[in-house]
Model the fold of this input.
Amino acid sequence: MGQGIQEGVGRNPAGTEVRVEADAGAHSWTNAEPNTLMEQVLERPNLMRAYQRVVSNKGAAGVDRMPVTALKSHLQQHWPTLRERLLAGDYYPQPVRRVSIPKPQGGERILGIPTVQDRLIQQALHQVLSPILEPSFSDHSYGFRPGRSAHQAVKTMQRHINDGYRWVVDLDLAQFFDRVNHDVLMSLLARRITDRRILTLIRRYLRAGMLEGGLVSPRREGTPQGGPLSPLLSNVLLTELDRELERRGHRFCRYADDCNIYVRSERAGHRVMTSITRFLERHLRLKVNADKSAVDRPWRRSFLGYSVSWHKQVRLRIAPKSLQAFMAKLRPLLRRSRGQSLPATLQKLNPVLRGWANYYRLTASKRPVEALDGWIRRRLRLILWRQWKRPYTRARNLMRLGLTEQRAWMSATNGRGPWWNSGASHMNAALPKRVFIDLSLVSLLDTMVRLQRQP
Done:
């Protein structure tokens, strides 16, 4: 470690010690002035928390290709200089790396991955700014906020509909994160933040270019998804929408850029759609995607993956698109498992099933989940049928699993395709549900029922 470095010790979420060094000079974290925001951002405890969060989140490398594992040694060498540049307002972020990921309903989402160093700085900013900005956010906003969740938003949706607001204005903001107006956002931030170094740094993060194919393209609008600051900044901007809806007395709930407004009639819905679209375009410089937005019955739309029944007392159900998207996600995972043993396949599959069951545990409709469980078992039988390959191997394994010799040979030589055989009676008899239970396959239905019984 270099001269003039003061060492601090903390623990990461795994419980192992993490050491991050602080400059022991006049601008050390421990001696920082507490009354200005940038000094609070650079205080040692705040930076330790930010470091631990970045390390625990792992994540891909940015344009400099530095992995998270190299952040500690990088800070040991460069932190004093980096800190002085931040204090002087002379720090410029590196461009973000462009990454595209497929959306569940088609198309792709563009992410901008900051360098690990910039993720650390953004996380440190977020930790200081969030307590300042949070009190100004709406009670009807649920996304990217401490103590709030998608489940709370879904339950609020259900309550509005049960109260008689049985028409929904489903707003889809066109490429929201790519079209955030920097001037509008910065003017809103300036109302709550007085440290101009913080405001300058945030604007530089907003304008950091995006690297693709060796070329850096400048940014004049948008807040790239992929950094810790983007969710917080999105809530700063869309709180203006929340306050406008509250001023008009509307029932609504918003999760990030996904906003639903509930009204009593179709006519009122179209009126609200027109006026709110005008507000978004004129005041926030945001565009509503007319093709994906609609005034409709809530049981014909989805919100955060859920929909509702159309009965007098509405109940939550999993949106059909969500079921299809999950099946599409499982197919390649199961396809890659063809050369593996069944226990190895289940070891990869079970965490995915648990996470999905936990998110959709609010559903009151059990039949689609039961059908999905059956489809998963059929896909697993398909893997085994293909692994067995030859008729002799198939017959031998079917007999080992309890089928008679005659039935096993007839089944193994029936000439039908793998998918047909995976759903045929001989495979269901050889590999019934209880076999998969004994192998510890997670049952979506059983998991949901158990979670619903918990307080």
